[in-house]
Amino acid sequence: MVVEYQKEIGGMMILIKSLKFRHIKNNIVKVISTLTASVGLFFLCWILYEVLKRGIGAYNWAFFTQLPTPPGIMGGGLVNAMVGTVLITLLATCVGTPLGILSGVYLSEFGKGTRIASAIRFINNVLVGIPSIIIGMFIYTLMVAPMKSFSAWAGMVALAIIMLPVMVRTTEDMLNMVPDALRESGLALGAPKWKVTVGVVFRAARSGILTGVLLAVARISGETAPLLFTVLNSPYWMKSLKEPVANLTVTIFNYAMSPYRDWITKAWGASLLIMMAVLGLAVFSRLLLRNKGTSN
Amino acid sequence: MIILGILWELFRNSKLSLAKFGLGFLTSSQWNPVTEQFGALSGIFGTGMSTLIAMILAVPVGLVIALFLVELAPPKLSSFFGGAIELLAAVPSIIYGMWGLFVFAPFMATYIQPFLGKTLGFLPLFKGPPMGIGMLTAGIILALMILPYISSVTRDVFRMVPPVVKEAAYGVGATNWEVTNGVTMRYALKGIVGAGFLGLGRALGETMAVTFVIGNSHRISASLFASGNSIASTLANEFTEASEPMYLSSLIELGLVLFLVTMVFQVAAQVWLWSIKKKLAV
């Protein structure tokens, strides 16, 4: 009895003694984790800073208004590439968005709980992780090789495929956030399912879906690898969608690997453009989502 | 549908090289467009090596960041850091490439690599001239790129830990760290493995950033400072130059290898995460 009591006292002593130690350990961990998180932040700032610093230097009137010059000759701009990137991204968005939204609607509204739906969801998740270069290659063998020419169409299809799974996933998530009570009240009024989906569920999830579109656009507008295999690049204005079209990302790749100082500066300029566009979209869509979160 | 299509197309187009090199394609490090001798070994090695470096760096750091965001940081700071880390994911890979080639590689060459060479130079890993570009730099940049994925998935898993369990631990007087180490981590371990797989899949297929900094030479070297290549960087560099059918078909077979490997990892990650979600939901 006495021995047990002493043991207990001993245990308490160790506990009290170690309390300080435990707090110290706790604080060390806190400091380390704060530092680690700051490292991530530091790299982000470093990248942003360098791109900004080096990119700004490339900007002048010609950069935004003129065509590229032949290698080694100073001056010129990348206006054709800017137009090309915007065009290809827009086209891909036009194809990828409706398909993605429709599949998302199927998964969340009509196929919910069925085996096919979960199979599609699974495949979709895998597709998100497939490297974009593989998608580019796939389109190369499917479209570029048979047509014997790199083309804007092929690039558009490749980007649409990359965009699709992202759209499907966000649409489904957003629709799932719509409370079932809304659906049920719509159905109780005698509205058919499609009408409830279009009139009620869509309206409730509108801003969420818009966010999804923006994020998907942000993702594809920075893509390079698939474009390398499909659109290639061109120093001229495009004449049709059946031929190689200039675009910013492949231009960055070509210019950065070149020995010309002027070109490398231009590559930085183009990088800054792409980065501002992508980060702008990402930040904007997040703000949109946050506003929605607070108003509800 | 699309996945099957990709598989079939890549397979069909790589038949030529499949027929010629057979399984030897995977084990030969020869890569000579002139004599039409192709082997994937150096690419596979480079992909594996750079991914390994990335994982070694990114998994612990990603983990700690997720812990910080969920357990330790005050909510405002947490959402600020979380947003910043997610922005890191939004930066296009070509920007990482530009930054890696023109900013980070020189930095490595002048500061980090000579230091490593001096202190750890007796290991074959850190031998060779500090060129800046090469395996180590590629690995570090990859780590930076997959960091946001790992930390955001891990964060989600941490958030799935029921608060009751954590509160119980706090209730008996455990410190922050003890709760994290003893309760949250134990609950979330499987999820962390899943997050690692997802990051792995990303790193394997990453193209542009690696192409910029890895140096692009078809050889296998023990030193982390030496240049090498990965499957994806070979594809990006040589695809548009490949004119011979044999060359092209070999490149496509490389793509097929990459595709199959990433598929396996993706499917494994999905199945793994799915089974955990099911378990936690019950």
Tell me about this structure:
The complex is a heterodimer of chains A (296) and B (282). Chain A has helices at 2-56, 61-65, 79-110, 115-128, 132-147, 152-176, 180-188, 193-221, 225-230, 248-256, 261-295. With 296 residues, chain A is an all-alpha fold. Chain A has 2 domains: 1-56; 65-295, MetI-like fold (Orthogonal Bundle). Chain B has one domain (2-281): MetI-like (MetI-like fold), CATH 1.10.3720. Chain B starts with a helix and ends with a helix. With 282 residues, chain B is mostly helical. Chain B has helices at 2-13, 15-21, 24-27, 41-72, 75-90, 93-120, 135-159, 163-171, 176-205, 208-213, 231-238, 245-281, and strands at residues 31-32, 37-38. In chain B, strand 1 and strand 2 form a beta hairpin. Classes of the chains: A mainly alpha (296), B mainly alpha (282). At the A-B interface, helix 1, helix 4, helix 5, helix 8 and helix 9 of A face helix 1, helix 4, helix 5, helix 6 and helix 7 of B.
Structural class, judged by helices and strands of chain A? mainly alpha
Overall structural domain count of chain B: 1
Mean pLDDT of chain B: 73
Number of strands of chain A: 0
CATH superfamily of chain B: MetI-like
Alpha carbon gap, first and last residue of chain B = 32 Å
- What characterizes the major β-sheet of chain B? 2 strands, antiparallel
CATH topology description of chain B: MetI-like fold
Biggest sheet statistics of chain A: none
What is the count of helical runs of chain A? 11
Please state the structural category of chain B: mainly alpha
Oligomeric state of the chains in view: heterodimer
CATH class of chain B: Mainly Alpha
CATH class of the largest domain in chain A: Mainly Alpha
